[in-house]
């Protein structure tokens, strides 16, 4: 019973912290560099097919995320640098992973 009395405050503190983070909007972080690369490659595969998209795989692997910021509708605007220069893309987390919604802000 003494152990249960010690666990209750820890569980309450953990629940409070998680709730505060969720309410503050910190519960969802932006996509990682590999998330951005994979999302952009999947978008290209949907447009040109897997075989043609595979030819561009090295270019997507060279894409670097400069920064990502929370945007409207649970999306993130990410500044990226790659072989084709600097760009801004919109990304959103879906049930099957990150999705590239398009270029621009």
TrEMBL record:
PROSITE patterns, per database record: PROKAR_LIPOPROTEIN (PS51257)
Endpoints of the signal sequence: 1-24
Record keywords, A-Z: Signal
Keyword Signal found: yes
Protein name: Lipoprotein
């Amino acid at each position: 019973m003494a152990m249960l009395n010690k666990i209750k405050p820890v569980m309450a503190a953990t629940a409070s912290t998680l709730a505060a983070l969720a309410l503050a909007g910190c519960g969802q972080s932006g996509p990682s560099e590999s998330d951005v690369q994979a999302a952009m490659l999947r978008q290209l595969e949907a447009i040109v097919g897997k075989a043609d998209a595979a030819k561009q795989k090295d270019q997507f692997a060279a894409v670097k995320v400069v920064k990502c910021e929370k945007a409207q509708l649970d999306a993130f605007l990410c500044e990226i640098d790659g072989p084709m220069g600097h760009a801004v893309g919109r990304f959103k987390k879906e049930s099957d992973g990150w999705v590239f919604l398009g270029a621009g802000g």
